[in-house]
């Protein structure tokens, strides 16, 4: 920590004096200045956007090249000596980037965000899921149930879990409407079809779909390719991991059309025993490009079969204590086979031993994306989408009472069952954009989406009852949101941002769930989410910004299923952000402070329902207070370092733990006062040191995640230990030939767990706590080769 503080001090106080470059970017045909054009020094971390008068300022050396791009115009590169006046020519084709512009932040949005390009994603895209590829972005913690980044993976931003992270593809929601999480396993190898990703931290800009309480991940798929191409990628490595990808594109056909496609397969045994994955996916896109209109039809599908590793590993097995494992076996009445599995499996232990304990699910996504230039200053995005999902997970349940399956008084038998989900999700999004004034930009947009989900359970065995259905429910959710966003150039060097969203959600559930739980609820929520920010350009090298935003979120399906006695309330958030940015000839610095103040946040308190399932409960007050620092430094043309650190305090005020006392046969309440929010480390650090020599690139990547509590009691006995990983990435690209990548993960063989859970109860006058962890792989590797032609 001392070294990190020293680095922060050095980079914050170090000033590099380079040549001051300033100029104007304008439309070649009309000579009108272009507001919001991206201007950067080629091959460096430095960049800026033009103001309302088309002006920009940068620090660059005399031999630098200035790159300029703007949606709807052809990008240009000019040497510094010709950068005083840069004219852009309108493209004959509208660009794909227009479809995500309405939901993305920019330099004047007064909030924290990170952009990740397809090039950056591709450096590590050897089979692991998207969360793992975003692991080194600020305030991010990733998890993997199978321990090696393939299969069920997750992402947390600022300590907020997947249900609080909004995910969109081309502005279309990807979060599951009921759980509100994103299941990346249903989108295998999707990174191979992504052109760019923007991660917004905090409430962010108004977007479509689930409320963003920790952040949002905004993805744009492949972009316009004017020339025909083909690409083949193959990679493999530890734990039987193998990825094969074929991509192709037609280039421009008849001056107006393009076709693009991808086929992928990923298989892996997983680090955890039997945690195998068999993932198949495809992506096809047909585009029409006109002078004033653009349309793209996207179809992508994912089909996954994964062996379950959801249960986690008991603490005693992770620690290797035979005495504690035997005590766990005794108090949980494990069978002989389960006990032997626990005692002999090591860190790779998997609770499930039934040979078809698998999750099987498929999704088909259809997107129609269009943009129309209505007038010189006006354009309209109008999009439609449909997703069909279906699948089940199969479970073995020993010594089951068939009465619990509605079969009357029958003997105790072993049962194999499948829990099915069959759903439809469809709707439309739109955005009307105005950019005709030198002092004002405006967007009016929104979305209407409907989800229909059918949940039911079928027995597979005993054979005599195969096909018996013991529960069925139907859910319908309608989500309507409208937003208006505006940027004003108030005065010299000042810009104001205003974003107002209205969102209404109708959620209806009817039927039965497992364990004969009755579902009969009909709830409607209305949310108003205003956002306001100010940005001040202090000088050509630095700026400061501040914003205040409101967010809101409805309860999930499970909150209603688990809690039959009390209706959960929606959650609310006020997000205050303040930032400072500075760039020089060799460095870039971003500092962002935040205060996220929650009302009625839903958290686990230890309470359980009548069937023993955990219940999330609204807590009146909680908050996150933090500082994020992002630093980039170019030691030379060959050596670049980039790093980020998040320091935070995450607290629940007056937390009350609920624990069931079997001696009293009742729930008891334990007052803990102010406690830490679960899964919210106070320190997150990531860094990448990259050395480039011609066609060779070597990177050293480090990630540190501080201690995380498994529940909200701040009890050290219920926590994940801090961990630090070191990876090495080597890449060599041959001229007019293949590129080779070697990824060495966790080279110091750190034994760590990135996720877990806990529960406690009282029995026999004592409190028993059961901790479960998700161990991650030690040293492992992936080797890949790719060729484009």
TrEMBL record:
TM annotation in the entry: none
Keywords: Cell outer membrane, Ion transport, Iron, Iron transport, Membrane, Receptor, Signal, TonB box, Transmembrane, Transmembrane beta strand, Transport
Compartmental location: Cell outer membrane
PROSITE patterns: TONB_DEPENDENT_REC_3
Major place of residence: membrane
Domain spans labelled TonB-dependent receptor plug: 108-215
Domain of life the protein comes from: Bacteria
Residues annotated as domain TonB-dependent receptor-like beta-barrel: 342-747
Membrane topology qualifier: Multi-pass membrane protein
Pfam families: CarbopepD_reg_2, Plug, TonB_dep_Rec_b-barrel
Family of the protein in this entry: Belongs to the TonB-dependent receptor family.
Protein name, per record: TonB-dependent receptor
Source species: Aquirufa avitistagni
